[in-house]
Write a structure and sequence with these properties.
The chain is globular. The chain has one domain. The chain has eight helices and no strands. Helix 2 packs antiparallel against helix 3 and helix 5 runs antiparallel to helix 6. The termini are far apart. With 200 residues, it is an all-alpha fold. 34% of the residues are buried. The longest helix has 25 residues.
């Protein structure tokens, strides 16, 4: 087995572990509904990363990832039904498919729209103090790291669109992807835990 494959399996193991942490933490969650959406989001994330990291089918992986951000958005909104803003997330994809005719760019645009919605709800829940103190901080910190990860992905993939990209910047962006992504998943995985209960 090649070193590259071993690295990818290790990455998948980290994401799988985060899912298990969230799943096993359900009995000590501060909210059953919140925990359900968290576990669903991380399960979908595992499936998406399987296609992105191991099988390498980017379009399918990103499309599945869109479902994870729908779960995150619903979770952060604190509601039991999808926020209406999610319906607007498809507009960037529609514009992209009309402008470019490239389905992968369209899927990426939809993903960006859904991430923007889930990130905005992560900020809102923090400002409104919607969740317990530790949990809302973990959610916001996790989503900020998630944002930095996605920015790194965008920079790294820019090499496909622009010739003469700086190799040092590309190498840094590639390393930064998992530097931000792994801790983001860990923070989100434990963000549903009832820390107040554990300190009594």
């Amino acid at each position: 087995m090649s070193e590259y494959m071993m690295q990818n399996i290790s990455k998948m193991a980290v994401i799988g572990l985060c899912f298990l942490i969230a799943l096993m933490g359900r009995k000590n969650a501060f909210s059953r509904n919140d925990s359900n959406w968290l576990v669903m989001a991380l399960l979908i994330t595992v499936i998406a990363d399987f296609f992105l990291v191991l099988v390498v089918i980017p379009g399918l992986g990103v499309a599945i990832f869109c479902l994870a951000h729908i779960c995150h958005a619903i979770r952060f909104s604190g509601e039991r039904k999808p926020p209406w803003q999610l319906a607007l997330a498809g507009l960037p994809g529609l514009v992209a498919i009309i402008a470019t005719g490239d389905y992968l760019i369209a899927i990426a645009a939809i993903y960006a729209g859904l991430f923007a919605v889930s990130f905005s709800y992560a900020i809102r829940q923090f400002i409104r103090r919607q969740f317990p103190p530790i949990n809302r901080r973990l959610i916001l910190a996790g989503m900020i790291l998630f944002l930095l990860c996605d920015i790194s992905v965008a920079i790294f993939n820019a090499r496909l669109l622009f010739e003469g990209a700086n190799p040092e910047i590309m190498a840094f962006a590639q390393s930064a992807i998992w530097l931000f992504y792994a801790p983001a998943m860990v923070l989100l995985a434990i963000s549903g835990y009832n820390f107040t209960k554990s300190t009594k």
